[in-house]
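Thread: sanity check for a docking pose with NAP

Original post by kr_44:
Hi all, I'm comparing my docking run against an independent structure prediction. Below are the sequence and the ligand SMILES. Could someone generate the full complex and paste the structure tokens? I mainly care about where the ligand ends up relative to the chain.
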Amino acid sequence: MNINKIVIIGATSSIAHQTALLFAREGVSFVLAGRNQNRLDACAKDLQARGAKNVSTLIMDAANPSDGKLLFEQSLMTLGEIDLLYIAHGSLTDQARANKDTGYALEEFMVNFNSAVGYAMTFAEYFEKRQMGNIAVLSSVAGDRGRGSNYIYGAAKGGLSIFLQGLRNRLAKSGVNVLTIKPGFVDTPMTADVPKNPLFAKPEVIAKGIYSAIKNGKDVIYLPWFWRWIMLIVRMVPERIFKKMSL
Ligand SMILES: NC(=O)c1ccc[n+]([C@@H]2O[C@H](COP(=O)([O-])OP(=O)(O)OC[C@H]3O[C@@H](n4cnc5c(N)ncnc54)[C@H](OP(=O)(O)O)[C@@H]3O)[C@@H](O)[C@H]2O)c1
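Reply from moderator J.T.:
Ran it for you. Here is the predicted complex with NAP included:
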């Protein structure tokens, strides 16, 4: 599958940047969207040094995603056409705080769910009319089952996975591929405060899996692969037992 023009939302994410580096080798052009100009500039410089053709940056804020249409229009104007929308931004919710602060819980939902839905819907119309294209979105294994320790983040990612399933069902008829990416633990700034365990993977490893899944037009991937089986077991635990577990 030829992918020459890519828009990345949340382009400063470690996983997104490692994925972008793999595409950069092929002389791809990018629009990088994020909320921090200095970090975007650093990513752009790195991608150019690794072979990217053209790299532009745009400011966006997933906490206030009304900028979606503008983001799409500016991306299209810059690139001329778009082959891949890659949505990567996200925030690991502080569940203890969310339990006491509903406003914060809803803000987290905005960043992890509403904004991604809004951006994907805006670009979907373009791809549908063009009868081709790719949308790849970072969801999470956390969305496969609600757990007391992270159910606001988990619910947002679970909702996102269901949304992407529906979007895939709609866009498949127009030759547009929608990829749901479900990583397990990844060693990035987002998990800096999470105690490390042997299941943690490097973002470079996750990026290779994402790159190959996009190229091969996959629908849903667990990364690393073993999370598919871990989550199958987790989903199979009866609710009457699961609700008593501290997870
Ligand atoms: N790390 C994991 O264990 C793991 C596991 C499963 C899924 N994921 C998902 O993978 C994706 C990428 O995360 P990562 O691991 O690569 O972590 P990361 O390097 O910390 O990246 C998080 C990204 O989200 C952006 N972001 C957060 N809030 C934002 C907002 N309000 N507006 C715009 N951008 C915002 C950050 O921007 P700044 O650079 O400006 O902070 C950063 O680019 C996320 O969707 C995450 O939920 C991660």
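The first strand starts at residue 5 and ends at 9. Hope that helps with the comparison, let us know if your pose agrees.
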